[in-house]
Amino acid sequence: MLLLIATAGWSSERWAERMRQRFPDRDIQIWPDRTDDLAEVDYVLAWKAPAEVMRACPNLKAIFSLGAGVDHLLCDPQMPEVPIVRVVDPDLTERMCEWVVFQVLLHHRQHLQYTAQQAARDWAPLPQPSAREVRVGILGLGVLGARAGQALAGLGFQVAGWARGLKAVDGVESFAGADELGAFLERTDILVNLLPLTPETRHLVDHALLSRLARDGALGGPVFINAGRGGSQVEADIARALGDGTLTGASLDVFETEPLPATSPLWDAPNLVISPHVAADSDPEALSLYIEEQIRSFEAGGGLRNVVDPAAGY
């Protein structure tokens, strides 16, 4: 039995090391080092690897995404018709929650302004609204969005979430569907995107959408935070919105092209925090255990959990 690890932009060796510890009696190989006898491959652990790698494995039983997103697999219409398993792991969920809460607090507590004042040696306390005066809206109320929403509600923020269907999350007001998107945006001071990338969400966050955010909030203007998928945003529109005052601030961890090109206008946009897709870095130790449990259950006749619905896109 052979497990093939196929990643682009990551160190595959650290994943191979963990999987060899989990499965000492099995053959764990790394693409592209292993390109022969792909008929022996039972499982592929993938992150942004070329789709032909999976297509070249005729006896493949399942594909495990090594990151929260699965659009890197669903973008190929000729992907083998085998289960694709997405990551749902407490470690990844808590990492994402930490990052979202940190970015919300950074803008709420006006840290960018204080950083600029520090550089200018300017001691000037700013009026500080309380969390209960600030309305956070989360696009996407799956596992990640629900956890972040509950954490922010626990800090006193007014939290709402928007999804395709109504969700029941303690402390989070639920909006659903296209008919309620407008009302959701109009009550939102800080917009957080945690949506998966689907045909419906691609380029959803453009200048027109950002212009619908609340203008009467305690922060003096809206903020956009994205740790979902880079393809959900129109990056030129975000730079424009920061420049023309439609947004007063933003934090972006994901981008349509990664690494973010040096020519991107985002690098020079005002009041923007950029991080290199690290909001919820996949931990090989935690996720290798998750994958091991899934494979052992599957081979014992059980089902796989968190299998992607290709029609829905997640």
Automatic annotation (TrEMBL):
SUPFAM superfamilies: Formate/glycerate dehydrogenase catalytic domain-like, NAD(P)-binding Rossmann-fold domains. Gene3D superfamilies: NAD(P)-binding Rossmann-like Domain. The keyword NAD applies. Keywords: NAD, Oxidoreductase, Pyruvate. The keyword NAD applies. Residues 103-279 form the D-isomer specific 2-hydroxyacid dehydrogenase NAD-binding domain. This is Glyoxylate/hydroxypyruvate reductase A. InterPro entries: D-isomer_DH_NAD-bd, NAD(P)-bd_dom_sf. GO terms for molecular function: NAD binding; oxidoreductase activity.
